[in-house]
Amino acid sequence: MYVKETKKDRNMNREEELLKLKYGKKSPFKVPEGYFDHFTSELMTKLPEREAREIVMQPSIWHRYRPALWVAASACAAIFSVGIYLHHENSEVRPVAVNTEQVSTGYSAFDEAADYTMMDNTDMYAYLSSEGSNN
């Protein structure tokens, strides 16, 4: 994969090369011989003596009750799954008995209910007022 070098990248590379030519690759920092050989023991002698104490960390409420929450969440998921399974098992598609006499007459109770629900308030008021004037 080819990455296009931008003008900024070229300037940075040029500056880096100039610094390497001027100062070289050697580190300007030097550590005395054997400095790290006895570093830890010398540091420990320089520290003030203190009595070691034990710190007991109490787990947070979340860490204390996390297993119980996992069990409760698993139980809820299991109960929910069983409920869905039983609901689908009980909701089988069953054939519905149809009264052929109502269907053959033309205008059934279904048609009447469909007409009724398609009315808005204005239509209902007009229907009711016309019914009252016919009597």
Q: Would you kindly provide a brief summary of this structure?
A:
The protein is mainly α. The protein has helices spanning about 5-25, 40-45, 60-90, 100-105, 110-115, 120-135.
Tally of strands: 0
What are the low-pLDDT stretches, counting only 5+ consecutive residues below 50? none
SS-based class: mainly alpha
Strand content: under 5%
What this model shows, in words?
The protein is mainly α and 135 residues long. 61% of the residues lie in helices and 0% in strands. It has six helices and no strands. It has helices at residues 7-23, 39-46, 61-90, 100-104, 109-117, 121-134.
Features:
single chain; 135 residues; mainly alpha; 0% strand
Write the layout of secondary structure elements.
Layout lengths: L6 H17 L15 H8 L14 H30 L9 H5 L4 H9 L3 H14 L1
